[in-house]
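Hi Y.,

Following your request, here is the sequence exactly as I used it, all 294 residues.
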Amino acid sequence: IVLGPVGVQGIVHPDAEIAVARAVADLRVPMALSTVSSYTLEDVATACGDSPHWYQLYWPRDREVGASLLARARAANYSALLVTLDTFILAWRPRDLVNAYLPFLSRLGLANYESDPAFLAGLSVSPDEDPTASVMHWQSMFGDPSNTWADLAWVREHWDGPIALKGVLHPDDARRAVDAGVEGVLVSNHGGRQIDGEIAALDALPGVVEAVDGRAEVLFDSGIRTGSDVIKALALGAKAALIGRPCIYGLGIAGEAGVRHVVRCLLAELELSMALSGCASIADIGPELLVRIP
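Below is the corresponding structure, written out as tokens. Let me know if you'd prefer a different format.
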């Protein structure tokens, strides 16, 4: 398992991503850090120590800022890059609209931007002196709807490690991703937060695995709640499952200790479910364990 990138964790607990990093570092479980984190990527990397950590990129319209973020991530020993494809704009989210809620307006989740020299170069004064200008500057560059498959060459130019494209649900997109030379695809519907009524990530997984045909790693994200959920994802061909909301629930309840408890329980349930399914190792998990309900 890998802890997936969840943004703006500071709205849940003041220790946010630092608490998550410390918890998973103790357990030697990899984590991925969101671009819109509450602490800088350098601070989170320090909390991770030598435990594996990945960086998730919301591909900004300002290429100088994007290049700077990637350079910082490499310098901080992030070993893999997840490029999110499905959130170049934020979706229609009625609950947020009803509550007039967008944490970025209060500069929550902007730690990586407001610590970045390329971002700061676009401001006439510091974010503390003019918070509104900082937020509007961020808003102007958060995503770039004009990116195409050809633009992946720019990402490769600025990142020399493994790259996985996050948000792949269609087999044709999976094939194009592999043809473009990425090392992985991440099957995800962004936790159901982008398009109402879209396909479940688990339903999309078999088609993506077939399309990739072993030419790249397939990771899975969205909807994992239990150890048996992890088994289902692995049985359908995923190399690993990313965990999102459960760890954030633990973070909100008890900070670092809460995250550690959730991950330990998930791993314990995974091992017990494997044993009860007759699987002595991860290699024993295959599609023969599953029955599709009509």
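The two ends are 29 Å apart (CA to CA).

Thanks again,
Q.
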